[in-house]
Description:
This protein has helices at about 10, 15-30, 50-60, 75-85, 100-115, 130-135, 155-160, 185-195, 255-270, 275-285, 290-310, 355-365, 390-405; strands at about 35, 95-100, 120-125, 140-145, 165-175, 200-205, 230-235, 250, 325, 335-340, 350, 370, 370, 380-385. By secondary structure, the chain is α/β, with parallel strands linked by helices. The site of glutamic acid has 10 residues, from α2.
Amino acid sequence: MNHSRISKRIQALSASQTLAMSQKSSELRAKGIDVINLSVGEPDFPTPEHIKEAAKRAIDENYTHYTPVPGFMDLRKAIAETLRREHGAEYAPEQIVVSGGAKQSLSNAVLALVNEGDEVVIPVPAWVSYVEMVKLAGGVNVTVPAGIDQDFKVTPQQLEAAITERTRLIMLCSPSNPSGTVYTREELCGLVKVLERHPQVMIISDEIYEHINYTGAYTSLSEFPEIADRLILINGVSKAYAMTGWRIGFMAAPLDVAKAVTKLQGQTTSGCCSIAQKAAEAAYTGSQQPVEDMRLAFERRRNLVVDLAREIPGLKVNVPAGAFYLFPEVTSYIGKRYRVEHPGGIPVEGIIESDSDLCMYLLEHGHVATVAGSAFCLPGYIRLSYAASDEKLAEAMERIRIALANLF
Ligand code: PMP
Ligand code: GLU
């Protein structure tokens, strides 16, 4: 019998591994250990000045009351205009729902679409929270592995094979967290063709890393009118505008989905913070130069990290085309042992049995925080976030190199 006071729903939920590793690294730091945190994925830049100014103005202008549940009309208009300008996608402001981060937009969408027992197809590796959101909604995760040998891209054949008559939803993410992979227009065309054969399947496209890409030619799934009536586009200001703490994301969706999500949000969290919404409006309507400046910095760091990782024997590395993550395969280290001498203390010994063990070893003995591939449903990899300074990245990669060289 289950005597817990906590609901079975929440007991079944796993804690976010990205946030957990980041928390562990902060705890070690609090003990005075100089840990380099490459676990959590967030831009290390401050929010651009003109956006902060807009927030200060919002306070002075008394934007301090409850906001409309789906967001201020001016912000939704600015988002619709951005989607029209960048992708030629036609959305009425009524189809946009602003939420407390893309995370809430995603969980709203999953809760609004998935019934008990519905299958949800998720190409993996996938961001830690997707499968947990599906679990919360009572859905069944159908993960489709796409490893480094296929550049972490699911093929049309794999997608076709994963879809059954019980499939309700597919969750795509490009640029991908954790692999950095970006689907080309042709590759998306191939997936869309499969989806056209299965009109009962709804599609979530998480494009939160859209502006952090090094391809020069980003294609959004909102550019395919064939699936517009089934597409829930997710995006937000966290990554592009270095605004993770402001908690503003949005979905652009068919009207019935937008209405359903507004009803859900109206009973759970209400409209988002008034001040953060005015800041987000400034992000979408103001100069886009800071976005490009940060993108260039991420591209330089991507090149640096890839070069350094390639020098480490046993790491299998791809060249990520977007986001700020590297997802090397580490299977050659699984099964190895370590023995760490402590001056005046007892040596610590152990065996690396999994990617999670490797992450713990790198954290405790290499003092670099990363996240295990298994947290993204693809064991045998680790994720490094390169949203850190060049100096920190060079030092972290050197620590990783030494720690791995000490395994035997
Ligand atoms: N989707 C992906 C793939 C992410 O990596 C993140 C990062 N946290 C989010 C959604 C959520 O972003 P936020 O809630 O900060 O807008
Ligand atoms: N998306 C980031 C990451 O994957 C932030 C942490 C989170 O929200 O999970 O690290």
